[in-house]
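Lecture 7 notes: from sequence to structure.
We start with the chain below.
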Amino acid sequence: MPAQSKHALPVPCAGCRDGAGLDFEIAMAFQPIVDVMTGRPYAYEALVRGPAGESAASVLAQVSCETLYAFDQRCRVVAIETAAALGLIGTGARLSINFLPNAVYSPASCIRLTLTTAAAVGFPLDRLTFEFTENEEMVDPEHVIGIVAAYKQMGFGTAIDDFGTGYSGLALLGKLETDTVKLDMALVQGLDANLRRRTIVDAIVKMCSALGVTVVAEGVETEGELTALRALGVRYVQGYYFARPGFKSLPPITPALF
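Predicted structure tokens for the same chain:
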């Protein structure tokens, strides 16, 4: 039975529109998160771009406080619709979407458009993961804790992105019951030649294993980094070594690696 059939649509808040209020268009690029045990994509992360492939920075520069919520909603819709159109559902991989916790008013109400979009394209809810970055300072940490708890109850996956270089670090992991932690590239890049960095990652991996939290290493660019991560027990990896983000496409994983 499709996961979305278990959820009645909540009453929407006043801001629940399909990007209403935005005066610019967006598109998505997708980068695979690779399962090193199988060589197959475990997930694809949706990354916002301009309509002609313009950078995420150029898109985010157009977002104001007044359009933050509409932008967050529009990103979810475009990510789900584009991924479905590209055949992601048939790959068995998850779809990982970045979300802005400071843009979510009520998680139960503001998820309505996500549920409607997923139902319309047949995207299973239990294969959606919402990432929020540790690099974004949270206006109300308790509110974010509530969002994560609500999303978990709805069957979504949740992830802390850029872990290890942001505002809250271990304190955040202690408060939020996310099922995934994504190691920031600042910890990953060059760790094969840096004992201190490798020791820190080793400790994080062991801690997450004890907590039942999945670890994803971001920013993998060399064979040495991949070898070191595999030796530390990291199963899921993401970075240019495997594939660059594909604009409106699901890029293939470099086949020679496996």
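Points to note: The CA atoms of residues 134 and 168 lie 7 Å apart. The first strand starts at residue 27 and ends at 35.
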